[in-house]
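To whoever is on call:

I kicked off a structure prediction for a single chain this morning and the downstream step that reads the tokens threw a length-mismatch warning. I double-checked the sequence; it's 418 residues and nothing unusual in it as far as I can see. Pasting both halves so you can look.
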Amino acid sequence: MQKRTLSILIIAVLTLILLDGLFGFSKKLYSRYTATFGSTIHNENVAVEPPPEESQPEPIRITLAAAGDIMVHLPQIKAAYNAETDTYEFTECFADIKELVQSVDLAICNLETVLAGPDRGYSGYPDFNAPDEIAVAIKEAGFDVVSLANNHSLDKGPSGIYRTIDYLRSIGLIPIGSIRSEEEKDDILLLEVGGISLAVLAYTYGVNSPYPTENLVSIIDEEKIAGDIAKAKDMGAELVAVSIHWGTEYKREPNQAQKNLAEKMIEFGADIILGSHPHVIQPFDKVEVALPSGETREGYVIYSLGNFISNQNLQTLNMKYVDSGVILTFTIEKDPETGEISIPAIGYTPTWVHKFFKDGKDHYRIVIVEDAIKEYESGQPGDLSEADYLRLKEVLEETREQFRSLDLELAVSTEQDE
């Protein structure tokens, strides 16, 4: 009897030990499993902190810059000539703005001359033909896209624009607004820039030469513009920029035809409109249009970016305002989750063409207005005269006038405040 009782006790103890082991193991297994999913579990073996909350993905962000008319008059060609090497050097013209232009993701300009080659003879107004070196300088300055849709596109006929297109492409620039063949007339420039798809289109009111423009130059036509923008959207364009050659020369305000066309292009789907041709800066504005659906749509337009570089000034034309331009910059953002595109920041940098005589020849240099003023006032005038300094101060105020509608701040210059 005593042996039987002992046996029962032994069995009972072993059973309790086994059950404790089973439940204990089960608890530890559950603890580990839960900890994997972020719970805080405290037991004799482990204390696991929850992982930090997932942060929201950063928006995709790129920058786009645009500058105005690049003209090459005959005095500029003579100034660029190096007799020792028998070549032309335009790099100096862009030295001061190079850092700014190279800092953006995509830079656009309007080239208002052709590169028809030396055999055709270099010339300025009224039939422009510049040395190839101007394109090299444009490329080295940081520009990517060059509009060839302007009234001087056919100054040297079809062969002149063909060679211009070929040469720009050969050095890595992207020409738009003029084409080489009928097969290219419906092409849309769609660029993938930092994760955002941009379409860039270009049109002009017409050309000065008698040559027919069909299959050569993109002429302003509302139906074509609407179709091109629609095609760009179908191709996946998330933002559409239009370079447009329009308006009245030397007028600081847009005419009604410009305003009407700007509204139409925004209605068609354009987001940014970059004007050229007046050779003076015209106002920048945000334009809101009512759509047939009852919704509204907005876009940004600068009616004219002014002259980026030329020989036009008070002395040559007896006219103010033609010696200045602006570099306009847009910050473009894309929400990586929704795909929504926005333009959270816009800036402008006033520029001025500094023409001066040194070492027996003329020099042309695009200067950043604010930087040049600061340098002069700090006792480092360089090649600036007192008259130049006074003109720079005028240009700064003249440019600000054209941007007051949006109360934009001046773009940060390449020289940081100390």
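Update from on-call: the warning came from a stale cache, not from the record. Cleared it. Sanity check on the structure: The chain is about 30% helix and 25% strand.
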